[in-house]
Amino acid sequence: MKKIVALFIGVLALSSCTQDIKTNDPAFQAKFGDAIWRANDARVFVDENGAMTIVAYTQFEELTLATTSTNPGTYVFGTTNQDNYAAYYFEGQGIIADHETSIFPGPVNKIANIVAGGFNYTNNSDALTTGGSGSGLKLAIEVNNNGTVNEVNVVARGMGYEAGDVVTILGGNGQAKVRILNVQQSNGEITIESVDNGFFTGEFKFTAVDEEGNTVSFSKGEFYRIPLSQ
Q1: Number of domains, the chain
Q2: How far apart are CA 99 and CA 218, in angstroms?
Q3: pLDDT at 144 over 80
């Protein structure tokens, strides 16, 4: 697993979200299932190439968020760029769980981009596709005056696709293609909002998967003034 060995061990914290995270400094929390997951400690690590890793801990858990840069902005998980990733590790009470936003087959979560627009297509709310690792993906497409596809939205996610797959939209001249960003079992994002004198603030959410396809999801994640580890 892509993780840093735990340096800070505390007590498991699951409680209600009635307290503003900014009343604690630093603070790291997210919604995990129906409860609020709060870290007992969190630190930021930056390597010699400028890549950032945030590691947050409880007694039995370690949550990792990694990006290729410390620059403010949004970094997406579960894509072909595996240098941006999230991971969740649990070990305790006879249980070990190890989840990451790795490349994993599944229903499409988001489309990355239109690779080729083709021509002679017509607007279609249920366009079929072919190619890639999976099957069953359907898209709503909009076209310009030349019949070139310029907008797509997922209407049926299919199954068995992987991040980076390029699929062809049927119809027109058969040359419109889109690239898959990530899948439902492995996706998410982190937004670094600010870096202030070595203190990092932002938001995150992700769904990560283990080797057997079991998933965990964190939503409404926030980190506030997490310090850079010296």
Answers
A1: 2
A2: 12
A3: yes
